[in-house]
Amino acid sequence: MISSKSNNGINGTPIIPGDKSISHRSIIIPSISNGICEIDNLLNSDDVNHTVKAFKDMGVKIEKFQNKTIIYGKGLNSLKKPEHEIYLGNSGTSARLLLGLLSSQNFNAVLSGDKSLSSRPMERITNPLKEMQAEFDTNNGILPIKILGKKLSGTEIEIKIPSAQIKSGLLLASLNAYGTTIIKENRITRNHTEIMLKSFDADINIKKVDNKSKIIVNGQKELKSKNISVPSDLSSSSFFIVACLINKNSKINLEKININSTRNGILIALKKMGANILYKNKRKINNEEICDMEIKSSNLNGCILEESMADLMIDEYPILAVAAAFASSPSIFKGLGELKVKESNRLELIEKNLTKCGVKCEVKRNDLYIYPSNNYQIKDENIETDFDHRIAMAFSVMGSIIGPLKINDAESINTSFPNFINIFNKHGGNLY
Ligand code: S3P
C-alpha cells in the first residue's frame, strides 16, 4: 500500500470501530456467564473474530445480526472440549486470556497462532498460572501450547511484568478455582476485565494504594450476563488524532471514545506536547468512561515521558513517535522494553522506519530519542511492518505529510481496524 501526502488536511467525523480489548472480554465473559448478552458495536476484526470462533468451537451459541452480537451463556462450567486445536491468528490477547480461562476448565485444549504470535512469550502467563497448580505442555514456553485443564486452587500471586493480559488471564482462571485468589500488581494496567467482571456479579474486590492494587477473587461464583455496548477504541482513534494534529487545516470530531484512566496515556502525552484536543460530553457506559472529542491542527513541542507512562499507553508509541517527528523540539520516551515483544519488535521498527523517513532518532537501552526537523528527505520509501497493524497505520499517517511511502504487508491492519484505509481516505488521507 502507498501512503501519499494529504491534499487538504484531515477533516470530518471518522467512525472509529469498537474497542479491541473490551471486545475480546465481551465475548469471553458472557460465554461463561448465565443468560443472554446482546453486544452492540463489537469490533469486527481478525483478532476478535478468532476469539468468537474459539468460543463457538467450545459449544457457545453466538449469533450476529447487523451491528449486534448475541451470546447465549450457560455458566462457568458449560464450555465443551474443542474438537480441533484453537487457532488464534495474531491475537496475543486471545492467547493470554484463554490460557488462563481454559487452565481451570475440565478438558484439554491446544492453542496455536500465526508466525508472530508463535514467537511471543507465553511463560509470563503460564508461570503465574502454575502457582495455582495449572498444567501445560509446551516447547520453550511458546505456542502451540497444550492446556491440561483441571480445577485450580486459589493462592496469592504477584505479577512481575506490568501486563493486563497476564492479570486478565489470572482473573479468568480464578473464577473457576477453589478458594480465594489474590492478584497483586505493582504498576497500573488496563482494568477492563475487572470492570466487566464486577458488573457480571463476580465475587471480586479491589484494594488500591497509589499505583499498586490487590485484586481478591472468591472462585466458583456463577456470573450473571448483561448487555454490553462497546465504546470506540482510543488506540484506533489515535491514528486519526495524530493525523489531524500534524496536518495543517485539519479538524475532526470523534464520538464515544473510551478514555478509561488506565489507558489514556496517549491523550495525556499529546496534551503535554501542546495538542489541541477538547473533551466533550464525558459519560459512562457499562462503567467505562467515554467522551466525544474535537481535535484541531496543532504546533506540537517535544516531551520527555517516564517509564510509568508506558503502562498507560503501551500500544500508542508507534503513532506517538510519528507525532514527535513533527514537534518543534526533541522527545525522549523512556522504558519501552515491552515494545520488543508486541506483534513485532516495535521499538526496532519505529527506529528503523523513522530513519528511512529521514528522521534522526536512536534507541539507547530501552529509551527512544527523536530529534525532529522541518525538512525530511526520505532515504528509503519501503516501510517494514513485519505484519504489525499498528506500525502499518502509524506510518500511513507519516506518509500523509512526507509521502509517498510504501507500507509493506498492510493487510495486517485487519487485525484491529479493517476499514482503516477507506475511513482515512474519506477524511483526507491518501492511501492506495
Ligand atoms: C491488551 C493489553 C496490552 C496491549 C494489548 C491488549 C489487553 O498488552 O498491548 O494490545 O487487551 O489486555 P499487555 O497487557 O501484555 O501489555
Give unreliable regions as ranges: none
Structural class, from secondary structure content? alpha/beta
Tally of extended strands? 23
Q: So what's the CATH class of the largest domain?
A: Alpha Beta
CATH superfamily of the largest domain: Enolpyruvate transferase domain
How are the strands of the largest sheet arranged? Answer: 2-15-17-16
How is the biggest beta sheet arranged? 4 strands, mixed
Average pLDDT reading? 98
CATH architecture of the largest domain: Alpha-beta prism
| Radius of gyration computed on alpha carbons | 21 Å
CATH topology of the largest domain: UDP-n-acetylglucosamine1-carboxyvinyl-transferase, Chain
What's the number of helices? 13
Give the percentage of residues in beta strands: 25-35%
Bound molecules: shikimate-3-phosphate
Termini, distance in Å? 6 Å
